[in-house]
Amino acid sequence: xxxxxxxxxxxxxxxxxxxxxxxxxxEKHEVFLNGVRxxxxxxxxxxxxxxxPETEYQIEADGVSHTFMTRRESVLLDVRRFGAAGDGRxxxxxxxxxxxxxxxxxxxxxxxxxxxxxxxxxxxxxxxLLLEKDAVLLGETDRRRIPVLPGLVxxxxxxxxxxxxTWEGDPQDSFASLITAIDVENLDLIGExxxxxxxxxxxxxxxxxxxxxxxxxxxxFLERCRNIRVQGLRIIHSxxxxxxxxxxxxxxxxxxxxxxxxxxxxxxxxxxESCRNVLLLGTCISVGDDCIAIKSGKIYMAQNHPRGSxxxxxxxxxxxxxxxxxxxxxxxxxxxxxxxxxxxxxxxxDRGIRIKTRRGRGKASVLDDLQFENIVMRDIPxxxxxxxFYFCDADxxxxxxxxxxxxxxxxxxxxxxxxxxxxxxxTGADACFLCAFGLPEAPVGEIDVSDVRASFRPTAERTPQxxxxxxxxxxxxxxxxxxxxxxxxRLKNIAVTGAxxxxxxxxxxxxxxxxxxxxxxEQAAPAFA
Length: 529
Hints:
By secondary structure, the protein is mostly beta strands. Helices cover 4% and strands 50% of the residues. The protein is built from three helices and 43 strands. The strands form six sheets. The protein has a 28-stranded parallel β-sheet that branches. The chain is globular, with a radius of gyration of 24 Å.
């Protein structure tokens, strides 16, 4: 089996096997580096560390080899030389920040094994931050010791706006994140170490929707950055959204392990917001909210700093536990286009594919060209949901947002274009396989579903529940397709077993075409004689 070299840094490499499986291969493969056995793995995406700069390597597996050259490194700076203790007691912020500030272009700041207590660290361009195995950056928990990033700063005669922080789609004062990069380019953040937000030892998850001094921080925040690579890190215990790229371009996130407790509030795993050309590859996410949520802000940002998210590729990831595996929305006022999700395993999240918006997001909020292919879903109660009545924000339960009656389309009306879903194997469905509800005045453009095999839990194990978070919507159980206000529906090569009904629910569908669609009801248990 062949493989591709995805990324090469000064001291590491990431490869991806040409496998059609999701997340991992059925058997392990040995990896050799310059003829020496380096590792054995069954993951489709794999990284090797501990390489030397400007060195040629030959990597071989399954009789296939590729040659690569690691990148140049101007200097290697060990943070212990700058006074960092790494003992878990001393505050190492000043020593760590000094090493970063002193690092020349193309230099590497090395954090060896140890526990480094730190307030937010600010990275800069043209450097590598290397967290070696067993190195832990442990976040400060006292919010009085953490700097605040202002949401907006106005300056000059024209009162130009500079945005430095965000909270749930609006420019709001927020605490700086454990790792923060603003207007940075050509940065690598790599290694087998851990970023620990340490939220469980603070009050970040207490009254989480209450602003105290400022809004909660992320663990990793990238704002207006370009050409960024984050590779290999374990990122845990985030105060809020864990990895949050914002208004940034050309980003790679490779082989990450993102873990937050299941009851930790709003701790999304990966939230690219108003970003372009983003690759998330070979990453495991298990969190207290959506595993992945692609966003583009609320109406103020769309009107004053318009920028959508586009060119998002998510591949070979394991997304387990959380509200949604891959979510788009709901803060999407700038629009989201050209999303590709493939070869992913969704395991035990509330929903698999989750698309959510609402009136008030605005005319620039167009969600289009969204493709999901070769997905395995295990124990996902609501496999696919599309909701244009999402009841978030202060006015979320208002008649304007929740009315199912036709309203005049205006500058506040969002739109959903084409959603394509193919090659899905889904087991353990509960409420529904696909539930979609478009606006009467702005129906969903097209939903195209093909090559699906789905099975429901037995009736005795199902729990009727509302698949989409909107008012006045019924609880469902065993519904294969529940579709309302869709301009075009295409279903091809669909086999659903164990459903509560063998007929899809279709209402206000403009054009529908079904080809080889089989929905089988659960067989009744035999009666005792």
